Amino acid sequence: MSSYADRLRALRDQLAQDGLDGFVVPLTDEHMSEYVGEYAQRLAWLTGFQGSAGSAVVLAEKAAIFTDGRYTIQVRQQVSASEWEYVGVPATSIAAWLEAHAPQGGRIGYDPWLHTRAWVEEVRKALAERGAELVAVQRNPIDSVWGDRPLPSDALLSVQDDEAAGKSSAAKRAEIAEWLGERRADAVVLSALDSIAWAFNIRGGDVSHTPVALAYAIVHADGTGDLFVEANKVPDAVRQHLGNAIRIQDRAAFAPALGALSGKRVATDPERAVSAIFDALDAGGAKILSVRDPVVLAKAIKNPAEIAGHQAAQARDGAAMVRFLRWFEETAPGGELTELSAAAKLQAFREETGLLKDLSFETISATGPNGALPHYKVTEESNLKIEPGQLYLIDSGGQYADGTTDITRVMPVGEPTAEMRDRFTRVLKGHIAIDTAIFPDGTVGAQLDSFARRPLWEVGLDFGHGVGHGVGAYLSVHEGPQRIAQPNYPGGQSLEPLRAGMMLSNEPGYYKAGEFGIRIENLVLIVDREIPGAEQRMLGFETLTFVPIERTLIEPALLAPGELAWLDAYHARVLTLIGPLLEGGAREWLEKKCAPIH
Question: Which spans are transmembrane here (predicted)?
Fold first, then answer.
């Protein structure tokens, strides 16, 4: 089909054939993943929306696309206003919209492999107010009309060795077994792809930029497990690594295996397991314990090997970033660079390390007005030339066997304006406020969020995304359960207690629509802080990312003495850690960028 309008018409025709009055299209897969394989990109195929979070509802005469504040501008650029209504979340939910717009007595379809049970219950209740019903489909109607839909990846699994993982899979499964014993449970279902990768010390290539494999797992109270994955994707080295304690079964055998757990007490995560998993367990007569997957917190609290690996990856990645920033500063004024060519050059510098496995996400390479789109994705159609007078924002990261990186820097092309310097410095003040925060053990991310916003709030400004997300250990660049964000952030992750050993990003920003964007992002590790006279355990952040912050964008008069001291100390550490990895002109450039600012 040549246009998105054609695709929408084809879907409506299919819904009519299926006896449905509407259908809900989320941007996720059977594992409730944030980043999904090409085969699961149904929302993008239907609407043209390229963001990483969103949903849509299609009715016979009306269609709506739901996005949060990060995509307010982007969704309007990519999705036709003549076909789609734009709806902001969390101000409005799919349930609330359907309660207002679903036809009386209508049948609204959903794919039970793409939604949580809580979502199903919420929407079913809302539809009942209209005398309508929510109907589980056996086959997703988009798959019926998507003629050239890609097949799921056939990438081979690989072993994450114990040295990098810091703990063997057997030891991890023994801890899961102990957790099950404490709850008098017989088994736990693992459906989140990064949980499976971490628990079994395996990695895969089924999702772009995230080293996971499409699989399900059941871990039993004796520490053994069943791994449901396509058999031809499991090489002998992985089979040997998994050993006799892990039974490898075809991925298609997963649902029947759930149905065979009759009478068993089975732990299942209501946030990460889809409705179809609960339905199969119910139908088979299992006793369901709705609790969080035990891997989630264990994975988030990094062990010493994971921390050391991440530090090594950060130094290597930081040197590549410095080489890129120097090249950019020297090359951009010529006016020949584009967003795509700049992103390709940074990737080349990372590849020169010889250890890059992949990028950790699609590089956000954005100049001028595109920088004002926080999650902008450059394409051949949107690609802009980088011209004098603009700010260039690059948010990028690398996947290395020892760590996952994520960094954002902003560079001016030519002389920045006074407004640009003011906004950049206020974002920097917020970044420093997070980096230097000291807080009691048990503090939640929502309590810290305003630290980063206050310098902007003071002049009537703000930004529409969270301040920080968790990061995996050669896993997902966005990892829960921790997050620094406002209390109403979708998913409730900002209410997760922060614990020593967790990694987070620190990335406040500012975006002036149609003109420029600013974001300063480092990764940080939560550590204990010894406070003389403290009457409780106190925590703080240890910086992990070391790349200079562009000094020509800083207005020193806006920084307090303590903030200036932080900046000079940070740059001194950059020079100490990254300087030995550079030579010649790159080393000289770094020395100038890291000189004291006052």
Answer: none
Q: Which residue reads 């494999």 in tokens?
A: 213
156's CB contacts (< 8 A; 6+ apart) are: 204, 205, 233, 234, 235, 238
Q: Which residue has the tokens 């799919």?
A: 94
Backbone angles phi, psi at 431, to 5 degrees: -60, -45
Dihedral-angle region of residue 412 (phi above 0 means left; psi in -120 to 50 means alpha; beta otherwise): beta
Q: What is the pLDDT of residues 129-180, one digit of tens each?
A: 999 999 999 999 999 999 999 999 999 999 999 999 999 999 999 999 999 9
Q: Helices (H), strands (E): how many in the chain?
A: 19, 28
3-state secondary structure of 377: coil
* Residue type present at position 337: L
Write down all domains in the chain, each with its CATH number in brackets.
4-145 (3.40.350.10), 158-298 (3.40.350.10), 301-593 (3.90.230.10)
**Cβ proximity of 139 and 165 under 8 Å:** no
Sign of CA dihedral 483, 487, 490, 491: positive
Q: What is the average per-residue pLDDT within 528-548? A: 97
| Cis ω for the linkage preceding 487 (within 30 of 0) | no
Q: What is the DSSP string of 166-179?
A: SS-HHHHHHHHHHH
Give the torsion sign (CA, 159, 165, 171, 173). negative
User: What gap in Å lies between CA 233 and CA 51, rounded to an integer?
Assistant: 29
Give the range among 144-153, 183-192, 316-325, 482-491 with minimum mean pLDDT.
Answer: 482-491
Give the model's pLDDT for residue 491.
Answer: 57
User: In Å, what is the CA distance from 137 to each residue of 15, 18, 23, 107, 234?
Assistant: 11, 9, 10, 11, 31
How crowded is residue 48: how many other Cβ atoms within 10 Å of its Cβ?
18
Collapsing DSSP to helix, strand or coil, 327 comes out as helix
Angle CA(128)–CA(132)–CA(134) in degrees, nearest 5? 90
Say if residues 92 and 37 touch (Cβ distance below 8 Å).
no
Say what the pTM is.
0.94
Nearest-angstrom CA–CA distance, 205 and 358: 10
According to DSSP, the residues that pair with 484 across neighbouring strands are 468
The Cα 13–Cα 482 span in angstroms is: 43
Task: Give the H or E element holding residue 338.
Answer: none
What angle separates helix 584-593 from helix 304-331, to the nearest 10 degrees? 100
**CA dist., res. 465 & res. 375, Å (int):** 10
The closest of 377, 371, 330 to 516, measured between CA atoms, is: 371
Q: Is the pLDDT of residue 187 over 60?
A: yes
Average pLDDT, the chain: 96
User: pLDDT tens-digit profile of 270-324?
Assistant: 999 999 999 999 999 999 999 999 999 999 999 999 999 999 999 999 999 999 9
Which residues have C-beta within 8 Å of that of residue 40, sequence separation ≥ 6?
Answer: 28, 29, 30
Give all strands of the β-sheet with 503-506 in edge-to-edge order: 438-440, 538-543, 522-529, 503-506, 468-470, 479-484
